[in-house]
Design a protein that fits this description.
The chain has 141 residues and is an alpha/beta fold. The chain contains 3 helices and 5 strands; from the N terminus they run αβββαβαβ. The protein has a domain of 75 residues: Nucleotidyltransferase, domain 5 (2-Layer Sandwich), CATH 3.30.420. The N and C termini lie far apart (99 Å).
């Protein structure tokens, strides 16, 4: 029996599409990569000669009034609730700058007269940016 042997054909690998994909990926990565050249500059920062304490003026003034009528100016409790004491505390905290925003926070059980007193003192000192907020008791679960 005689078998007809056909000559085997070598398979062809078409690399054209593979090369296209590789070139497209190369172009994509080149375009999407940011090339940042970082330069180094030597900077000599100034140093303080003395350790003088500079009093910092706050960006806003908070007056809090508790339910018992106690005043707190920027978290510091005042020794009494007299008008002169409140005025001196606000002047000390503001440093004479009456353009700072002033927030009056009052407890829900605080007297209305205490809030009006704080507003009156702030108004007489020339503050025009006055906000009023209430503080409710935290809910117990």
């Amino acid at each position: 029996m005689k078998l007809n042997l056909r000559p085997r054909t070598q398979p062809e690998v078409n690399l054209t599409s593979l090369i296209d994909v590789v070139l497209l990926l190369l172009i994509f990565f080149m375009v999407s990569t940011s090339f940042v050249k970082q330069s180094q500059i030597t900077i000599s920062l100034p140093e303080a000669d003395s350790s003088a304490i500079v009093e910092e003026v706050p960006e806003q003034i908070d007056i809090m009034i508790t339910s018992t009528g106690t005043y707190l100016v920027n978290g510091r409790e005042l020794i009494n609730s007299r008008v002169e004491t409140i005025r001196n505390a606000i002047q000390k905290v503001s440093g004479g700058n009456n353009s700072l925003p002033l927030t009056i926070s009052a407890d829900a059980n605080a007297k209305h007269q205490d809030v009006v007193t704080a507003m009156d003192v702030a108004g007489r000192l020339g503050f025009t940016r006055i906000s009023i907020a209430t503080v409710n008791e935290p809910e117990t679960q």
